[in-house]
From TrEMBL:
UniProt entry keywords in alphabetical sequence: Centromere, Chromosome, Coiled coil, Nucleus
Identification of the protein by name: Uncharacterized protein
Matches recorded under PANTHER family: CENTROMERE PROTEIN K
Main location: nucleus
The keyword Nucleus appears for this protein: yes
One CC-aspect GO term: nucleus
Transmembrane segments annotated in the record for this chain: none
Region annotated Disordered, chain positions: 29-52, 215-236
UniProt family annotation: Belongs to the CENP-K/MCM22 family.
Compartments, record wording: Chromosome, Centromere; Nucleus
Organism encoding this protein: Fusarium oxysporum f. sp. cubense
GO terms under biological process: kinetochore assembly; mitotic sister chromatid segregation
Amino acid sequence: MDYRSQPTAKEEYTANVDQTLRELQERVQQHENELEKLRSEQSQPPESAAGQARLIQVALKEVTESDPFLPSPGSLLPTLLAFRKTHQTIQESKSYLASQRVSHEQLSRQLEADEARLKDQKLLGDALTARILSLRDEVDAGTHVTPGEGAEELLQELRAKKKSYDRETSKLMKVLLRFIDNHLAPMLAAEELGGPVVGDLIGIDGDDLAAGFNAQGKLRKPKDSDDKEDKRQRRIDEIWGQATNGGTGRQDEIAAAAAEMKQLTEELLNTLAEAQGNNSASYVQLSRESAAARFLVRSKVAQFHPRDATRLRLVDFGRDLEP
């Protein structure tokens, strides 16, 4: 029964479409006939304003009193018009949403930025409030303290800070010395012996340094010979002077490079402290351009004199922080 009803519904829909099309065609033909009739009469419109007004009034009355065009009950014209209006509304809505999407994204980003700034302002306000309360407490406490007692308290605070700074400095120096011995010294020794610069070759040991490097900076294969240790010691003496340790063990090159780096670092720190902010007096005279000096310069920790490459000084980072 459903299979027989489907073609019937289709035929009914087709018949309604044909009927609607005929109605529209008849209506169009009717308007064309009326227009052709008006053209054939060739009546001239009145030239006076009153005549033109009367003509417009008669035409308006005729149009108003005439029956409007209404489709037949089975016509699909209302449905088609509704579909067209719905489709037009959907397309306009999609276009509007697409045009507003960019604006919505911009407003969202602006809202996020404003929220972040508001959060920062709240944190800053809380910090200022806490600081104001702290200052008030200090003022209230200071009103009950004599000038001598206040000076003594301040002196004790300064002494405590100095002890704390000294402890932290000692810890940092121990860490620095361990870093030089365990990591930096082998790479410095490799650079002094013609190998790659510090940082390009990691994991070097004494056997690698004893074998040396070729002209391209590559490690040579170790060779066994009777005078190997003598040649090795002479090479160490030529570069670093007399070995810092009495033996000729496998760590001689590393120990010599470590001792040179420690000595240079100590001289730079002491000279900078003695200069008291005078840049011209904070330079250290170098006996040679060593790998240790080049490493400090590449690390932006030290810098050569602009006109004398044999003079080196530390960069005074703390000077920019002083009031």
